[in-house]
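User: My collaborator sent over this chain with a note saying "see what the structure looks like." That's all I know about it. Can you take a look?
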Amino acid sequence: MMTNLLSIQEAVDNFKKLIEDSIRVGGIFAKEAMIRSSKPINQIHEAVKSSLINTGIERFRIYPPLGASSPEMMLAGFIKQKYQDVCVAPKGYIPTTEILLDGLLLEERDHYGKLYTERILAVNVRSQISSLAKNFDTLYERTIAEAQNLHVRCPKMVLGEVYMIAVKEYNPESMKRNQIAFIDKIGAVKKNIKSFQAINGRQDFTKEDYKYEKACLLIVDFSQTPAKIYNNNEDLISDGLMSANSQVNIAELNWESFASSIIGTYEKRFS
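Assistant: Without extra context I'll predict from the sequence alone. Here is the result:
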């Protein structure tokens, strides 16, 4: 098990290498198998854990531990119980098994209990590197539902979302020949920024249960080496990914502010 901290640039470049090596070896089917293996997205998980550790979170509080993909914490919300990608366990609280009394999980067993669950900091990690426009509605609705599931039962819970999109998609025709090429078509960058702005920055825990306390939108150009991560509007505009008069702003969703912001919200909420 590797326990070294991983920067987001290293994680994204590892993601790119895993995808592209699989294409060169086995084409489009190998690429799909690689994605199903979760090895590429686990690189982003490791960067999330590393960033939390860099803000001062003790390693022993992070699940799964740095360098591992298990054990994950399965948290009970209003609709379902679900394994969470990255969690920070609370200090000074002990899990207490409860039998749930309402919602779709009526009479189900919760191994942590509401008091403990509400004080867990949980971060979802997702990526979409193909069919951005085609799958947008379904994926966005799922993102909102994940926040609502936990916030309805645990309103004070601090939730994060790290969502990576590719501005240029890998060319499926080239993949069939085990070659790396990109479609010369820009994904829905502005639409994604606008959409994640709308679910970012939940400060009042008595409302807006569909929001995340902190969302991060990783906009990545995998056609460049190293892969380029966009952290500001200026770079997006200069590379032709967004118009100069756009009202959306990636700054509040960028990686650089993610860990410190979500930890700051957690400390403020739970003193």
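A starting point for your reply to your collaborator: The mean pLDDT is 94.
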